[in-house]
Design goal:
Strand order of the largest sheet: 1-2
Largest sheet: 2 strands, antiparallel
Strand content: under 5%
CATH topology: ABC transporter involved in vitamin B12 uptake, BtuC
Number of domains: 1
Distance between the termini: 49 Å
Shape: globular
CATH architecture: Orthogonal Bundle
Radius of gyration: 20 Å
CATH class: Mainly Alpha
């Protein structure tokens, strides 16, 4: 096996896993605490990419654009909670799905009106648009390392907020028993709005980080939201720890499966059969993992503690 290719694909898997975590962590908080199925979470990911793209061209600096975009996407998340989600909390999950699916269409249309049908590529500053030499002569894009570092920093910050602050205590309590939190006099609506805005910021940050690679495009959030739901189901709904571990697991399995599964299949079947079947199986791997976890441990690998 080519060591350079293996290291490169592992880093690609870490990058994908951390981006999935940024999306899935907000989704699992909203689902776990609010018991709200938000299909439009991926639209906030897309919106973050477009806002960052516009601000990058306006300011001429990608990093400054990210800093300005984060509070704006948080405001967008608050508005979605205030004017859409809040009116659906007391309804069943089918109404959540229908309402947020309609919201996806509305946001996609608004993006089409404001930014047009074409995607927007975000230019990177020269110091990010290069290569870093790792031990062993392996070259890795500088921006990929920035994504990994930013994802780890965001994960560390989120773990600190959830486990070491009063807000985190309320979030964990809400994930375990939101009725009791309300009975203790906590402003549930304010907590819900804050959690929704935090989830939007995390999803938007993921969109801002991936946009220079794939460009900001309409509908870019529709695929990642499906994978994000797989992540939170495998990790345990409402569990930030579960979202982190399962996101890395799924990111690595998906990336390595697409790169090396055909070589594994060639050990037991012909080359033609392996090259034909491996892409199909690799595309199903994460869903197979989800099915196995649901069969063995329906609550997920790391469900939040319920008292």
């Amino acid at each position: 096996m080519d060591t350079t290719l293996l290291v490169t694909q592992v880093l690609n898997g870490l990058q994908l896993g951390l981006l999935l975590f940024l999306v899935a962590s907000g989704l699992t908080l909203v689902f776990g605490i609010l018991d709200f199925v938000n299909l439009a979470h991926g639209s906030l990911y897309m919106l973050g990419a477009f806002i960052c793209a516009s601000l990058t061209f306006a300011t001429g600096n990608y990093l400054i654009a990210i800093l300005i975009s984060l509070p704006l996407i948080g405001l967008a998340g608050y508005l979605v909670e205030r004017f859409v989600a809040r009116h659906l909390y007391e309804r069943d999950h089918l109404d959540h799905v229908l309402g947020t699916f309609g919201l996806i269409l509305v946001i996609d249309t608004l993006v089409h009106i404001f930014w047009g049908p074409q995607g927007i590529a975000i230019p990177l500053p020269q110091w990010l648009d290069g290569q870093v030499m790792l031990p062993g002569g392996i070259e890795v894009p500088t921006f990929r390392l920035l994504i990994i570092g930013t994802g780890l920093a965001a994960a560390g910050g989120l773990f600190w907020v959830v486990n070491m602050t009063r807000l985190g205590m309320l979030i964990r309590a809400g994930a375990s028993n939101r009725t009791m939190v309300g009975a203790l006099g906590i402003d549930i609506q304010a907590l819900f709005a804050l959690v929704f805005a935090l989830g939007a910021v995390l999803a938007g940050l993921a969109g801002m980080l991936i946009a220079p690679i794939t460009e900001a495009s309409i509908g870019m959030g529709n695929n990642i939201i499906i994978t994000a739901f797989v992540v939170i189901i495998v990790g345990g709904i409402g569990s930030v720890k579960g979202a982190f571990i399962s996101a890395l697991l799924i990111g690595l399995i998906d990336t390595l499966g697409r790169s090396f599964l055909d070589d594994v299949f060639k050990l037991v079947m012909s080359s033609d059969a392996a090259e034909t079947s491996a892409p199909a199986v690799s595309a199903m791997l994460i869903y197979i993992i989800m099915a196995v976890v649901l069969a063995i441990r329906p609550q997920g690998l790391f469900p939040p503690k319920v008292r």
